[in-house]
Amino acid sequence: MNIFNQLIVTLLPVTPKVVVARFAKPYIAGEDLADAIGTVKTLSAAKAMATIDVLGEDVTTREEAVASKEECNRVLAAIAENGLDSNISIKLTQLGLKIDTGFCRENVEDILEAAKARDNFVRIDMEDHTCTDDTLSIFRAVRKKYANVGIVIQAYLRRSESDIRQLAEEKANVRLCKGIYVEPAEIAFKKRAEVQQNFLRLLGILLGARCYTGIATHDDVLIDAAKQMIQHLNFARGEYEFQMLLGVRNEKRNELIRDGHRLRVYTPYGKRWYAYSVRRLKENPQMAWYVFRAMFGNSN
Ligand SMILES: Cc1cc2nc3c(=O)[nH]c(=O)nc-3n(C[C@H](O)[C@H](O)[C@H](O)COP(=O)(O)OP(=O)(O)OC[C@H]3O[C@@H](n4cnc5c(N)ncnc54)[C@H](O)[C@@H]3O)c2cc1C
């Protein structure tokens, strides 16, 4: 990141929310469930599947966690009512992970029950490293009762190879991504090439074990290597999927769909869009320029 981008990132916390909102727009379906359903319908017309995410994390009260759970159940009902090809993604800190892991697990089970009744699937997102052990242990506990659940592993974490080997033995359904949180160098690879190498090592283990894998990346190096592995291992189209974020690399997304790959778009919505948007903005190398232009120039 150059000095200019670094400066804007540093200033993000004091950047007016209205400015952040403008640049968050492509990454968020909207504030309401109806916005998410509308976006998923548009994606569906473009032959993309979706996974809907109710924005929010790190709740501090049981009431907030229960409200999040209820919203997730409303999402599952709306997906079924509209006959959409979408599952949902959930964050455990939104369901009370930091309050009480038993309570969180009960909330996850309620969502899994609602999903099962509608023949749908729930993906448990992975948050920062303070959540990894608890997230994996809740995943394993609920998977004993529910088959319709998958997990996420972050290629930047040094521990991930060991986690993936175990998950591959368990034939888990895994989304593999690089990882978005800022983690210390003792536990995470920092160099782009190292993260890419680890991503491909982990992907090789998952595909080698014929686990259903969500290949979640917009990185051409990884997408091309994944395509080669899939071909080499004779995977049928229904045995894996690519995954991308709403608003990121739409042309690449369409190209993958045209080539016949299954492609799922992570579709977040909700009133708590700020933390998610700031993470996305920090990730986008063009971000600094856009934010600067919005604050000080003509932004047409
Ligand atoms: C479906 C999905 C689910 C995810 N779930 C999780 C999760 O549970 N936990 C977690 O830690 N992380 C998650 N992530 C985020 C992920 O870890 C990465 O931070 C993110 O995908 C960027 O990594 P990349 O592999 O696309 O590579 P990058 O090298 O970051 O991106 C490759 C290229 O994509 C484009 N690009 C990437 N991001 C942006 C952006 N924000 N705006 C514009 N262009 C961009 C740029 O052209 C960039 O050069 C998820 C990502 C996806 C796609």
Please give a structural write-up:
By secondary structure, the chain is an alpha/beta fold. The chain has a single domain, classed as TIM Barrel. The protein is 49% helix and 14% strand. The protein contains twelve helices and eight strands. It has helices at residues 3-11, 17-24, 33-45, 62-81, 101-117, 132-143, 160-169, 192-208, 220-232, 250-258, 274-283, 287-296; strands at residues 49-54, 86-90, 122-124, 149-154, 174-177, 213-216, 240-245, 263-269. Strands 1-2-3-4-5-6-7-8 form an eight-stranded parallel beta barrel, surrounded by seven helices. Strand 7, helix 10 and strand 8 (263-269) form a beta-alpha-beta unit. Helix 1 crosses helix 12, helix 2 crosses helix 12 (287-296) and helix 7 packs parallel to helix 8 (192-208). The protein starts with a helix and ends with a helix. The relative contact order is 0.16. The site of flavin-adenine dinucleotide has 22 residues, from strand 4, strand 7 and helix 11.
